[in-house]
């Protein structure tokens, strides 16, 4: 039920990039944009276009931990890649 127009409706759901998304975007842009688990979800009434609610995804510690591990591996990989590159060019 929509509280505005009192019609029995199915809310229109829109995914919006939240603060959490923007922070993660800085580190793992493509990965985060592909799966939208950090995005805020807005519910809209399809009749009167009123926003009925926003569901903010909780910043799960497990997700943060996984991303942290992913970043560490990525940084180590970049360092190793840079090292092998410099060796290659130096001789
Ligand atoms: Zn409505």
In words, what does this structure look like?
The protein is of the alpha+beta class and about 90 residues long. It has 2 domains: about 1-60, no CATH class; about 60-90. The protein is built from 2 helices and 3 strands; from the N terminus they run E-H-E-E-H. The protein has a 3-stranded antiparallel beta sheet with strand order 1-2-3, with no helix packed on it. The chain is rod-shaped, with a radius of gyration of 21 Å. The mean pLDDT is about 75. Belongs to the CDIP1/LITAF family. Pfam families: zf-LITAF-like (PF10601). This is LITAF domain-containing protein. It is found in: Endosome membrane; Late endosome membrane; Lysosome membrane. It is a peripheral membrane protein.
């Amino acid at each position: 039920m929509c509280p505005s127009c009192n019609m029995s409706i199915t809310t229109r759901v829109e995914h919006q990039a939240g603060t959490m998304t923007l922070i993660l975007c800085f580190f793992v842009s493509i990965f985060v944009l592909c799966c939208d688990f950090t995005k805020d979800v807005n519910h809209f009434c399809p009749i009167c276009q009123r926003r009925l609610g926003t569901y903010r995804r909780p910043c799960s510690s497990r997700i943060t931990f996984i991303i942290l591990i992913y970043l560490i591996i990525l940084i180590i990989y970049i360092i190793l890649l840079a090292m092998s590159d410099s060796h290659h060019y130096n001789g």
